[in-house]
Amino acid sequence: MLQPVVDADAQLRHIAAMVDARKCPNPRVIVTRELPNATMDRLEALFDTVNNRADLAMSREQLAEAMAYCDVLVPTVVDAIDAELIAAAGDRLKLIANFGAGVNHIDLKAARARGIIVTNTPGVLTEDTADMTMALIVSVPRRLAEGEKLVRSGEWKGWSPGGMLGHRIGGKALGIVGMGRIGQAVARRARAFGLSIHYHNRHRLPKVVEAELQAQWHPNLDEMLANVDILTIHTPRNADSENLISAERIGLLRPHVYLINASRGGIVDEDAMIEALEAGSLAGAGLDVWTHEPMIDPRLLALPNVVMTPHMGSATFEGRLATGERVMTNIRMWADGHRPPDQVLEGWI
Ligand SMILES: NC(=O)c1ccc[n+]([C@@H]2O[C@H](COP(=O)([O-])OP(=O)(O)OC[C@H]3O[C@@H](n4cnc5c(N)ncnc54)[C@H](O)[C@@H]3O)[C@@H](O)[C@H]2O)c1
Ligand SMILES: O=C(O)[C@H](O)CO
């Protein structure tokens, strides 16, 4: 008779002990930046939390100190959690529960090498960011910022047939690069504005979703770029999307095209985009994110056909509270010994 290779009871005891070891009933949580009061209060009620109650990002030294003494770090997009900081983190640090969807400021590979789980907050910011993107899609061709500036200047002389003419968006072709949550939410809005939807994504969407969005898949990004009137970017910034909209690809866009980016700086070659705008080979841009945030290339400030917002795509009171809840769910699930629902893995985001 075959003998079992391992004693099943012993194996179960071993698994139970491992789960217990992972349970962390009252983890020390350090939050790097002031969050909504309700979120900070709940974090303090639920965990052994140290909130940074200042609306100032931590210095690198403060981050290193925090990472030496906590079980869970709650950073935001402005905290560069690079390989060096992760390598120097204390043994206690087991979870980085990011307050936000994008995690390009965290070195996922280095975190995995140290056995540190990283989570984000997908879904709760989707509609707000799509609203802001849609606002940029409308604002740039219709010259909203220029019009607002004219009224404020006191220089407006009244209505005229040729005054403030822009371009209609209805009937135009919208190209969406990155058709995930936000890309799809933008597509829904854009359909209502009469735009036709074209998309390029790492994976093709299920036929039923394509049908609902009336979206046409373009496996070849270059081919899509050469045929759209408005281009909007919604991929995360990752190894594959870095400089995805390169100088060469900007060169494929027709001169009447508007480029919108509410995803991340670094995906679009900002220098090449500015040169195209200055040369008139790109009609305009709507930008919520920047290559060197919060520094803005001064050449952009001089361009009237660029609408600029300060990384505020997800900035709603409701969205911030929901983001906080998502962070707490991830911490609670992890502390109870489960896999947190929003774990992100390098190569999957
Ligand atoms: N401006 C803001 O305030 C704000 C707010 C929220 C999110 N964001 C940004 O938006 C990004 C997208 O968020 P989401 O919730 O839609 O993410 P998501 O994961 O739901 O969707 C991303 C999509 O991009 C695709 N993708 C990834 N890399 C690609 C590549 N190289 N080429 C083509 N497709 C690629 C993925 O397959 C996925 O379908 C976030 O990562 C974040 O950087 C910005
Ligand atoms: O990615 C996000 O959630 C926003 O850009 C803020 O981090």
UniProtKB/TrEMBL annotation:
It holds the Pfam family 2-Hacid_dh_C. PROSITE patterns: D_2_HYDROXYACID_DH_1 (PS00065). Keywords: NAD, Oxidoreductase. Residues 134-313 form the D-isomer specific 2-hydroxyacid dehydrogenase NAD-binding domain. This is Glycerate dehydrogenase. Residues 29-344 form the D-isomer specific 2-hydroxyacid dehydrogenase catalytic domain. The lineage of its organism: Bacteria, Pseudomonadati, Pseudomonadota, Alphaproteobacteria, Sphingomonadales. It comes from the Bacteria. Belongs to the D-isomer specific 2-hydroxyacid dehydrogenase family. The keyword Nucleotide-binding does not apply. One of its GO terms (cellular component) is cytosol. GO terms for molecular function: glyoxylate reductase (NADPH) activity; hydroxypyruvate reductase (NADH) activity; NAD binding.
